[in-house]
Amino acid sequence: MTTRRYQLLSKICLLSSLSILSTSLYASEKTMQEIVDAVNGTPDMASREAGKKVKLRNHAKGFCTSGYFAPNPKLNDELAIPFFDQSKINVTARFSMGGTNPHASDKTAGRFMSLKIDGDKENLNFVTTNSPVFFAGNLDDFFTFQVKVKQGPEGKQWLIDNKPDAKAFFDFVKQLPPSASFANSPYFGVNSFLFTTKNNDIVPGRWIFEPEDGVVNLSQAQLAELPDDFLKEELLTRIKHQPAVWNLFIKLAEKGDEINNPTVLWPEDRQRLLVGQVIINGERDNESTIQTCGNGIFNPVLLPKGITPSADPILNARTPAYIESFIRRQ
User: Fold this and answer.
1) CA-CA distance, 67 to 153, in Å (whole number)?
2) Could you write out the DSSP letters of every residue in 252-270?
3) Residue range 56-66: mean pLDDT, rounded
4) Within a 13 Å sphere around the CA of 228, how many CA atoms are in the beta-carbon half?
């Protein structure tokens, strides 16, 4: 057995064990293979096998870069998370567009950011989007959404007429302008996590990344002058001169806020804690782990001590779904 194959099998075994741990935390009539098929648009065995041959995946158009995370030392006054005691932690970032088309246009509104923050002993991963509004609160609705949107306008209209959460998502995206840069977009973790306080209490919260340079959107006239592929070059050119920076916050829930449904937004007046800053500067972009980061997965339930997943079924299905997709691409 070659070294590479041995490493791959070892990684799959590790990921599979993580999948087993999270399986009990979601409930659906659909299997994980069916969920991934719905995302990929491979509804039968023949299309599934064809998808494997071309290594079909969601967020197919994307690129990796690097930087570091600088925790806010004052966070220790609020939360008991030893991971954030470090002063500077390496970050691997992947910025992407949605969907399975590796040639998708950058002129659509969707922006996605995934991060791996690799500490001395623990790790923290993020999977985020520029929409705080999610389209499904359970896996069966998630499956239905993915199937229907691939049916075109007729399927989308069915969702609008029959699924209020999907309609709210479409209404939000319809008024969302494309950002001028990945660096000028906010990103949201739509799922909830449980954080341990200094008093050993548990508080639910959600991640929010706010760009330090502010949100900058493009007008239709500006958009018309740009090529379909402008986001990657823009960001990589930008960080040669100055880093792209986001302030990371935890938005805390209050009593009565719905924790396990990502379609439910919490009021804007909820308390926020500054966790630190993500600084993307490309300082390790020549390393092989950065150049190949798109081949792996970003596991949002790979968490350090003091943070645990909520019972959100969408969150707890992410790991097994990502593993299924990862295995198909090998």
Assistant:
1) 40
2) EP-TT---S-TTPPPPTTS
3) 96
4) 7
Q: Where are the alpha helices (DSSP H) in the chain?
A: 3-23, 32-40, 45-53, 139-149, 153-162, 164-174, 220-224, 231-241, 288-291, 313-328
Element (H, E) at 251: strand 244-252
In the block, residue with structure tokens 């779904």 = 321
pLDDT value for 29: 79
DSSP assignment of 155-198 equals: HHHHHHHH-HHHHHHHHHHHT-PPBS-GGG--EE--S-EEEEBT
Confidence check: pLDDT of 211 > 80: yes
Identity (one letter) of the amino acid at 137?
A: G
Is the pLDDT at 17 greater than 90, yes or no?
Answer: no
Q: How far is CA 306 from CA 66, 89, 91, 310, 319, in A?
A: 25, 17, 20, 13, 19
Please give the model's pTM, rounded to 2 decimal places: 0.92
Q: Is the pLDDT of residue 123 over 50?
A: yes
Q: Which two tokens stand for residue 127?
A: 């999977």
